[in-house]
Amino acid sequence: MLSQRIIVSTLTVFSILIFMVSDGQAVQMPSSTIQFQRVEQPLSLKTIVTLSGLGLIALELWWFLYSKPKTQQTQSSKKRKY
Question: Distance between CA 52 and CA 66 in Å, rounded?
């Protein structure tokens, strides 16, 4: 596992590199006025995507919260003295 000192120094170096690459100026979007066009999707496609997403969320919740573990405790025949 990386130590906290290595993580902080790596983030500092990356910050300095990003500052140097951008010449110390904030990156700005071009000043063109591009208008986005709305693309209307069919209601059936929206419904399928939404139901699929909800189904995957439900499957994930069931998998991690409600499925039974497949591991079993072993029973030892010898009693240990501590």
Answer: 20
Q: What is the mean pLDDT of each run of 10 residues along the chain (82 residues)?
A: 78 82 64 80 94 96 83 68 62
Taking CA atoms, 54 is separated from 22, 40, 50, 61, in Å, by 42, 22, 6, 11
Rounded CA separation 20/18 (Å)? 5
pTM: 0.41
Lookup: tokens for 70: 């497949």
42 closest CA partner among 34, 30, 32, 50: 50
The DSSP 8-state label assigned to residue 23 in this structure reads: T
